Amino acid sequence: MPAENEPQPAKAKSEQTRTLILETAMRLFQERGYDRTTMRAIAKEAGVSVGNAYYYFAGKEHLIQGFYDRIAAEHRAAVRDVLDRETDLEARLAGVLRAWLEIAAPYHEFAAQFFKNAADPESPLSPFSAESEHAREAAIDVHREVLAGSKAKVPAELAEVLPELMWLSQMGLVLYWVFDRSPGRERSLRLAGRGARLTARGVSLARFRVLRPLVHEVHELFTDFLPGMAQTAAMRKK
Which letter does DSSP use for residue 150 in this model? Predict the structure, then answer.
């Protein structure tokens, strides 16, 4: 990564080069497939040296992390309107999920190509991996805001675990979207609306004390069996 204390013009040029490499990689991944695209090919197509490409991204996996970070940043900007306007939890969540589908739409074919790599929880490409923690936490932060800005009554003891469970629900939508071949991914959009309704009802039920242990148990199940999330949870406890 470029140094933080670079002069402003040099830093701007650095960011332009980084963006060029990332955008070139995304295009080549779509055209040739993730496995068939090399860092050398990316550098050649971007018009930079191989060494320069490795200066900004240590490998193809880091390019995917850059892609994840970009999607997360674009998503955070896209949800601003619905989060500033709505207080109903279902409406907020549905807006957030649909915004993600709109942001990700241009990358649908690419996502289907590299999913076989990302589906392995041990892979650095997995959204659950330790390498994906930055993008994952940014996405979970959106769900924290979804919950905090709603009029839903949430017990304090569940305020931390519910956003993570909501994000896991979003990952279920993403998995469906990867394989969705309906026109305009219309089925995924419908699933986003119905999933938001179901999640909002679940959050409403979670206010009852008798159901709170079940919420914690479900959360622990995922953090125990998804390696990256287990590591993040362990770090929080330190």
Answer: S
Cα–Cα distance for residue pair 20/132, rounded to 1 Å: 21
What tens digit of pLDDT does each residue of 127-185 get? 888 888 888 999 999 999 999 999 998 888 888 888 998 999 999 999 999 999 999 99
Helix 212-225 with 161-179: angle, nearest 10 deg: 60
Q: Strand, coil or helix: what is 223?
A: helix
Residue-wise over 200-218: b if at least 16 C-beta within 10 A, else e?
A: bebbeebeeeeeeeebeee
Residues 70, 72, 75, 79: what is their CA dihedral angle, to the nearest 10 degrees?
A: -140
Contact 161, 215 (CB under 8 A): yes
The one-letter amino acid at 142: V
